[in-house]
Structures are given as C-alpha cells and as structure tokens.
Design brief:
The protein has helices at 4-10, 245-252; strands spanning 74-75, 78-79, 89-92, 102-106, 119-120, 123-124, 126-128, 133-137, 147-153, 156-164, 172-179, 186-190, 199-203, 209-213, 226-230, 236-239, 261-263, 269-277, 280-289, 293-295, 298-300. The protein has 307 residues and is mainly β. Residues 1-11 have low confidence and may be disordered.
Length: 307
C-alpha cells in the first residue's frame, strides 16, 4: 500500500520548474575548467526535450517526446537564441560497454554578470567533456533554495534542487536532489567513511550513473570532479582507481586538478599529457592504450597506442 509520503514522489510532475533559475544560471564557474554557461544553455528545454546532449550518453532531459519551440533553434551551428556557435567535437570515441569519450565544447557567451572568457586547460572558452564538473550554489537564507549544477560542457548543464523527503513531503532532503527546468534525473550524496571523500551520484532517466567526488578530497585537488561512469548494465569507466575514491584522487588527478589517467570498461587506459603554453597548463595529448596481461602498473603486450 502506498503511504502519503511515498505518494508524494509519484504525484510530482515529470517537469519541475524552479523559478529562481529559469532566467539565471545561479552557480559560479566550475572550479577546474572555469565554465559558466548562460541559463538558456541548459541541456534540456523547458518542455523536457533535449537541447544539448552529453558525450557520456546520459538521457539528461525529463522526457524524450516533447518538441522544443525555440530552445534549440540554430542555423549552420549558430544558436538563434544565444548567438553562440556550436563548435563541439568528439575526438576519441572507442567502443566499449561503458566508453570513455574524449571531446570538446566551446562557448563564447559565458557570463557572470558581464561577459567573461574561461581559460581552462582545453583552451580559451573550450571545455574538455571527459571531465564534467559539479558546482554547489549556496542560496542566501533557507537551504531549501540551494542548488547543484552538473556542467558537462562549456555550453550545457543540468540544474538540481533539493528533493522532498519520503518521510515528510513538506521537508526537503539534505542528500537528494532532483533535476529541474526541463532536465531529468536525480543526484544523491553520500558521506565518505574512514577518511574517504564524499561522493555524489547522478542517475539519469535510464539508470546510467555518474559518480563525482564531493568537496573534501585530499588537498582539495579533485573537489567536485568526476570519478566514474556506470552504464545501466553495470559496466564501468573511471578515473584513477575503480574501487577506492581516495586512491582514484591520488593517482587519477594531478595537483592542478587535471585528469591524468582514466580507464574504460574494455580496460583501455587513457593517459593525459599537459604542457605549459604561454604560462598556462594545456591539454596537448590523450593516448589510449591496451594491454594483454599484467596490471596497468606493470602491463605486458598490447596494441600500439590508439590516438
């Protein structure tokens, strides 16, 4: 039998509107790549249809059958809504049950109250999509108005607000969040134990997962950064280490918070190389390698690197 508290979740609309963030991207720029998209660059249109997809394959929109009116209108790659040019590109998509896709997005209309340019390791106004980031927005006053943003490109994001609890449909959760303003899915947080960092897991509408570190990683070097991707059938791709979050931080990220090594579900290793150019650390190479034996600490055999 359904209780009043469990019915509260079933009674919520598929599309949930959050008035304060409809016309404003409330969060700050991402901590690592410095991306700060416009409110009109949400990944989903307000009717729940998709505007900008995720290279990770998430179904980030609330429902796939809606037809957007103006949210994704463009001409030869130029958005008629924002004036931004879509220069997104997938650079390295190797087959796997859970792939690790190397790609880029571009955004010249970023704004923090006035026009701004990001300058992350992928380049000016570019964003490396294999390193999506979370951003926490601490609302003034009641924590019920706090938000989380999942920025998965320079020009695309998903916004979340706290979810009503099952125990009391009038109380907002401290650990669960639901996507709003046309987006779909939920975001769950879990406190780390025994010195491990907190984790935040995004579940899309199909059951795919993306696990992020919280804001308490060692030396803060991987705060709000991606740990692993989990497909609906349980296949995993991950940064650094698949089982222990603290190990993943220490071996998967450098001191600047850049990804060093990632692995897909076919056991390929993706090694990232950075070079200082004009006093800025830039991503200059990602090499995908295979092995036939041993561990990645001491591999044997394998095919030549795949670029």
């Amino acid at each position: 039998m359904l209780t009043r508290s469990s019915r509260a979740h079933l009674d919520e609309e598929l599309l949930t509107q959050h008035d304060a963030s409809i016309t404003a991207y409330l969060a700050s720029a991402t901590s690592e790549q410095g991306a700060q998209p416009l409110s009109t660059q949400r990944g989903a249109c307000m009717d729940g249809s998709r505007r900008a997809g995720a290279f990770q394959g998430w179904m980030g929109n609330a429902q796939p059958f809606g037809e957007s009116v103006n949210g994704q209108a463009s001409h030869n790659g130029l958005s008629l809504v924002t004036g931004a040019y879509d220069a997104s590109a997938v650079d390295l998509p190797l087959p796997a049950k859970q792939p690790w896709v190397i790609g880029r997005t571009y955004n010249t209309v970023q704004n923090d109250g006035s026009h701004r340019n990001s300058n992350g390791y992928q380049g000016g106004n570019w964003f490396q999509t294999s390193q999506p980031e979370l951003v926490f927005y601490d609302a003034a006053g009641s924590s019920d108005d706090d938000m989380m943003c999942l920025v998965y490109g320079a020009d695309r994001f998903i916004a979340f607000r706290r979810l009503l609890t099952a125990e009391d449909p009038d109380t907002y959760s401290s650990t669960r969040w639901r996507a709003v303003n046309g987006a779909g899915g939920v975001l769950d947080s879990e406190a780390g134990a025994g010195g491990e960092p907190d984790t935040w897991t995004y579940y899309d509408n199909l059951g795919n997962q993306a696990v992020f570190f919280g804001d308490n990683t060692a030396s803060n070097k991987a705060n709000w950064q991606l740990w692993k991707l989990i497909s609906i059938d349980g296949a995993e791709a991950y940064v650094g280490d698949a089982t222990t979050a603290s190990t993943a931080v220490s071996v998967g990220y450098n001191t600047d918070g850049h990804v060093l090594a990632a692995y897909d579900s076919s056991d390929r290793r993706y090694s990232y190389t950075y070079t200082t150019i004009d006093s800025v650390s830039r991503l200059t190479e990602v090499v995908a390698e295979t092995k036939t034996g041993g561990t990645w600490a001491s591999p044997t055999g394998g095919l030549p690197p795949q670029f």
